[in-house]
Amino acid sequence: MSSSEERLAAPVRNGSFGWALLASELAVLFRRRRTIAMLLALALIPILIAVAVRLSSSEVSAGQGPPFLDRITQNGLFVGITALVVAIPLFLPLTIGVAAGDTIAGEAGLGTLRYLLVAPAGRVRLLLVKFAGAAAFCLAATLTVAITGAVIGAILFPIGPVTLLSGDTISVVDSIGRSVLIALYVTVSLLGLSAIGLFISTLTSVPVGAMAATIVVAVTSQILDVLPQLEWLHPWLFSHYWLGFADILRQPILWDSFSDNALLQGGYMVVFGALAYGRFATKDILS
Amino acid sequence: MTRVWVRWLPAVVVPAVIAVAVVAVPMQAGAAVDLPDKTAQEVLGLVSDSTVSSFSGTLEQTSNLGLPDLGSALSSMPSGSGDSETDAAASAATTALELLTGSHTARVFADGADNLRVQVIDSLNERNLIVNGDEVWFYDSETNEATHLAIPADVHADARAELEDATAKAQAEAGAMPTPAELADRLLSDLDASTEVTVGTDTAIAGRDAYELRLTPRTDETLVASASIFVDSETGMPLSVDVRAHGQEDPAFRVAFTKVSFTAPDAALFAFTPPAGATVTEQALPEHDGNADHEALTEKDLSDLAAGDLPVTVTGEGWAAVAELPAGTVSAELTSSPLFAQLTTSVTGGALFSTTLLNVLVTDDGRVLAGSVPVETLQAAAAE
Fold it and tell me: Are B115 and B19 part of one and the same domain?
């Protein structure tokens, strides 16, 4: 495998905190054909939405279809937001599941894990680097949807001042700032799932199993989140605040869900990070 | 094997620490507060002396009235079926029902008596009520519709009263919650010999120390066990109102600030221009344009109601009062709707809409009896 050779060649000195390892991990991740294919698939979501709305002759009335769909014809900048609403429940968790489930199990499945650990990188450092890689993928996936949406929206529809949920209007420049905030919010939202994927990935050497399990966890969490009988559980589900990014579209911005979400995702990261450490540090690496 | 044990330690310690934090933090926030003792009179004085007119805050409203959560049933109700009058009546009814079930969050910004903005926070949507001097705007992001109500500069006293009616109606339409101050005013004005007023436990509400003014009905004939008003110890502004029902641990109805600040909000919040693309409805004041549209008509109905034009008979006193509306008040469309059948149970003499705080009996001959009293009292009043 050229990827592992490359990483083994990367000098990992004590005290360098594994920046070189991280750089090579990111390079391998984003050069992988699978990663590029997933990002392209995500980019298709806003393109499909925009083209469908552009070609359709029937007027979309307010309240129909995904949220914000009716705003697209008036303002192309809403394409990215609509695409994010569409992508959050399934497509984003799907790709994150693949990226995070592959982290450790993928190396184990290819038989490259033991070589990675031969280098004095340490298992903790490898876990951190793998998690950072998964987090970088979250950011890349979210930005792909948001930026493609903004670009295709600008091409196919007029752009102008953006109407917020509160009815106030903000300038295009302000709206770009809010879009960046939304992308950050969605990225943070997905970190908890990444940590769960990392933990599951340490349990097995079959990457497909880890990916599928991570995606199942994401879907299960969302199903539990809509059952009214489990209302006490809802604030604890990592998917509970996934659509809370709408609070950034209020005037003034409502930061409550942003901070609640960050706290919750932080909790998931710490708990599943500790579990992944317990498992990975005590594991016999045979492959 | 000690090393294996040590490596699993974080996986045990971290959840434990989080669990402790989850339990400890709310307990600390709700810790007992010790304020200088005050009599009920003094706390009432604190409320009436309150001069707070500029504030911003977040309100949480929870209802626990023993009704099913109707959110999905209500949103799936067909709308726009053509008959605007039925639609409007149905939407008003569903908004009222929505307020009675589940919980809601709203942000309130107020600056003086003339500037007010209420934002009802829905998931991915928001409803706004903006009052800026003579301008009243209502905006719903879901339908992208704005309603405008302009008050002529030379408003005389009557028009001012009508405006308040209209505002109240717009608020009800918005599903906007009454602020604690409004609720407290209403409750305090109802105080008479029927109610025992005591000062309860000092509590922290929205991070501020508050006195609890507890009102307990002197009669057992009512469903209301007690009502509490939490009054900010510094400013005298009511921060929370709880209404408890008999045999229920959680408050049946609660409006409380979760965050409050007494600095004047940004003036730009009260300047509202409807967004481009929104459907704007101009709403005339009823006295100028009484019959022009349906909205104005309902407003007129409301003011008629306020003026006592509808023959409401009240029997019983204080908390145990029963209000009776004559036959024909409730339209046949409403009583024959599936939602009505779902919400009511059939009892001797009619259909009963029952909550932990209020019972409404629609008799077979079309009369409506309502009160915070047990069903038997309503049935007895209906039989008279």
Answer: no
